[in-house]
Amino acid sequence: MFVLFALMPLLSGLVWSEDDSFFWIVFTTKVLILSLFGLSFDLAWGYAGLMSFGQALFFGGAGYVVAVMSRDLGISSIFIVLPVAVAVGLVLAMLLAAFLLSGSRTPSIIFIAFGTLTGSYAGERLARAWYYLGGQNGVSITKALTIGDMPLYEGVGFYYLALGFLVAAYVGCRILVRSQFGLVLAGIRDREERITFLGYKVQLTRAIVFTLSGAIAGLGGGLYAFHEGFVWPALMGPIYSTQAMLYVILGGVSTLIGAVIGVAAIEFATIILIDYLRDFWVIILGFLLLLVIMFRPMGLLGMLVSNRERIGSFRWRGANSKSDTRGD
Hints:
Elements: H1 2-15, H2 18-47, H3 55-73, H4 78-100, H5 109-129, E1 139-140, E2 145-147, E3 150-152, H6 156-177, H7 180-190, H8 192-197, H9 202-228, E4 230-231, H10 238-251, H11 257-276, H12 281-295, H13 307-311
Antiparallel strand pairs: 1-4, 2-3
């Protein structure tokens, strides 16, 4: 998939006219940025078992902060804007994790879902009611993202920037979940009681992963704000959080790359259905999602790989032979 994404701008001129090629490059840039958002949700839910209905709070919150920085302070440097966006997502996720995961008992999925949903809803209502944040109209961004003195407008440059961050985030998450720390996460996901008995701090481990997922969502939110040119209250609300969940369910939970597949499938299907079936596209898209969930619970990735291949196997670091491997 990443190879296809890398070649897309180079091949688009051979397939479409100049205007059509530019449109698809800009649209695919949006897909890449939303893939960061989906990736963050898969990390929280698929590996930490945290059903985060508030993932949009980190995504939209970071977008609002960088938009206000651009509007009021004139700051649009990538070396300032994106680190701030990551920090905003990380801090918001850390605060929410401290509230939800600080108890002595393991919180239920329902508690986590409604707790994060409340945070997302509160953020959206605050943005709608606060005049400084533009209320219903949101905040516009008039300055382009810059690298030094060079403005980074929509097009091939912005496209490869988004692709680079997506690949870096994916590789980082992949290393994390395939490490010894990832082995603990797998144990928490499958046998939480045993992991607790062995002395691991389950809630702290989950909080760390949840915080990292917030940082990735914040990075996506910062890029998305400059890509769209404005931010609006719904960007922090439950609708976008649900959208992230649909991306991951469709692509494949606990796979990382499934989030990217889900984003690409939904966004490209949406843009095509809108063109040809303007009045019925929502119904058709919903029906397609329902079919995949009913007959392929593992998502679209399940059509290509088995469940064992999807989850993978862990190998003991000190093993000197294949006989020393330790299960899944």
